[in-house]
From TrEMBL:
It comes from the Bacteria. It is a multi-pass membrane protein. Keywords: Bacterial flagellum biogenesis, Bacterial flagellum protein export, Cell membrane, Cell projection, Cilium, Flagellum, Membrane, Protein transport, Transmembrane, Transmembrane helix, Transport. The chain crosses the membrane at residues 34-55, 94-119, 147-170, 190-215. InterPro entries: FlhB, T3SS_substrate_exporter, T3SS_substrate_exporter_C. This is Flagellar biosynthetic protein FlhB. Residues 1-29 are annotated as: Disordered. Required for formation of the rod structure in the basal body of the flagellar apparatus. Together with FliI and FliH, may constitute the export apparatus of flagellin. The keyword Transport applies. Belongs to the type III secretion exporter family.
Amino acid sequence: MAENEDGSEKTEGASSKKLQDARNKGNLPRSKDLSSALLLIVAAATIYGTGTLLVRDLADLFDFNFSIERRDLFDLSRMIFHLYGSVVAMMDSMVLLMCVLAAAGVVGSIALGGFNFSWEPLTPKLSKLNPIAGLKRMFSVQSLVELLKSIAKVSLVGVIAFVVLSYFLPETLGLTFQSIQLAIAHGIDIVIWSFVFVTLALAFIAAIDVPFQVWSHKEKLKMTKQEVKDEFKQQDGDPLVKGRIRQMQRQAAMNRMMSDVPQADVIITNPTHFSVALKYDQIGGSAPVLLAKGGDFIALKIREVGNHYDIPVIQSPELARAVYHHTEVGDEIPQGLFKVVAQLLAYVYQLRNARQGAQRPDVMPNLDVPDEFQWNGD
């Protein structure tokens, strides 16, 4: 199992952030064997597809260079002309082959891991010049594994190449007795079949190397539990700090809410668990607005502020619970509570007028809360 430098086990898969950071640094799973196999497959297919053109160009090249006159051998300008003619004779087939191989090389290099461009690998690092670190890399377990892989690959490809060349040896020796064009065509067939068998060996190696490289890349990017926690803190912030911020935000919101309580027309209580403070603007308001609400300790504070500012505190458990659970601070009360709240406000206004000498109301009206606003959760 992968371990960190401090010995802690890397048991967690790489996060999306770590994967993206690795990609930005050019750290992607790559397979050289896949690129080599694909390059040979494309080369064999291209040579097979353009065999007629290649045979013609090679025949022209041999004919052109084997027919040099003796006087041309001692004339530099004539030899340069022959070199130019040789290049032109192979231009059609070689340009096509080189372009296809270049494209195959690019595709093979990005077939695993995808295309990615990063300046990070090109950035000079003094750590790379450290001879001790270099020796550690040279004699590490990873280097030993890569060495064994290379030996196994070379051995497998070498054995298959030896068997193929041994099989085609009689035909290869027989090329000397054939005409130029026939020998070239036959030789290209031998090259193609040799490519095919060697490519099969490399394809077999690539089929093993690709999943190994993917697995190795995931193992290298694994994280310890502490690294996951540290990354979470960096992205989302320290939970303790966030909790403190939320607490301060709640405290600020409660302070703003409590500062609005003195403007209330009435405070309705549970009488102990809930308190809500309502205000009705008789001139411009369409419905009473909830200025503050709270439970337990906050409910007590709302009542204390109401008593300090001589705001009527009315006990109505059902109405207090209904307003508390169906209205947010700063919102108007639901339309279904208009009637019962209007009855309560009318009673509060009568109490207020009674302080100025008007007749005091006999009893508080029966505040019937509609069934859909009844709350039985406490």
